[in-house]
Structure prediction request, 254 residues.
Amino acid sequence: LAMATEGDNGRYDPPLVDTTSMASVQKGFPGPNPAADPRRMRRIIAEDPEWSLATVPDLVDICIGHIVGNFEGNPLLDELKPKHKARVLEMLATSIPLRVTAPLIEDEGYWQRCCKSRWQVCDTSQHGNSWKRMFFERHLQGLIENFVPESTDPKELDNALELSSRFVKCLNIQQMLPPIQDMISKDDDGSDTSSDVVGDGPCSDHLDLTMIFKKLPQLEEVHITYGYGGCCSLCLLMNDVMMGYEFQVSRTVE
Prediction:
C-alpha cells in the first residue's frame, strides 16, 4: 500500500498511506512528523496581529527605568558603568529634590537641563562657565530676594545655604525686601520712617546677610541692589584670608 501502483490507464497512482506518518510511527512518535508541516510546528501565535518580540524591552532598559523611577528614595549612580550612568542622567527629572542631586550629580548636562527648565535666559559666563554653579547661585539669589523678615520661614533658606555652600562663589542680589508691616506703612504715607511709627513692629529692616556670608565659605564676590527702585548698589569683594570687605557704593538718581 505504501508503494505507487500502476493503474489501468497506465499512470502511477500515489501511495494510499502517508510514508512520513509511517516513518514517524516507526520512530516512536505518536503522530506525524511536525517538521514535515511548518503549520504544525510549535510556535507563538499572538492574538494581536501587530505583536512582535521587538516590543519586549531589554533587561538593561528595565533596570535603568527602575533606577530612574526610584532615584529619589534610592539614588544609584556611581556604581553604574559609564554608558549606563549617562543614560540615567539623561532620563532623570529636573524636579528631584536638591538634597539628593546636589551632593551626587556633577554632570553639567543635567544641571544645564535644570537651569533651562527654570529660567529662559541662561548665561554661564557670569558664573564661571559652570551650569551647576549657575543653578545654585541663581537659586540662592531668588530665595534671598524674596525673603521677607518675620514672615518667610528661614528653614528653606538655611537648607539652600547648606546645599549651595560648595558651589556659590558670586551672588548678584537685585532686591532685599523689608518686613510686610514696613512695606504697608510705606505705601500708606510714602515716608521711609515706618519702623519708627510702628513701635511693636519687627526690629529687622532686611535680611541679615551675616548668616549668609558665614555659611558660604567659597563666596568671593557679592553685588547687592537694595532700597525701592534700586536706589543704591553695593559691591562686596571677599578676601579669602582676612575676610575683609571693600565697599564700592554708587547712588543713582530716580
Q: What stands out?
A: The longest strand covers residues 232-238. Confidence is low (pLDDT under 50) at residues 21-26, 191-203, 240-254. The two ends are 117 Å apart (CA to CA). Residues 225 and 233 are 4 Å apart (CA to CA).
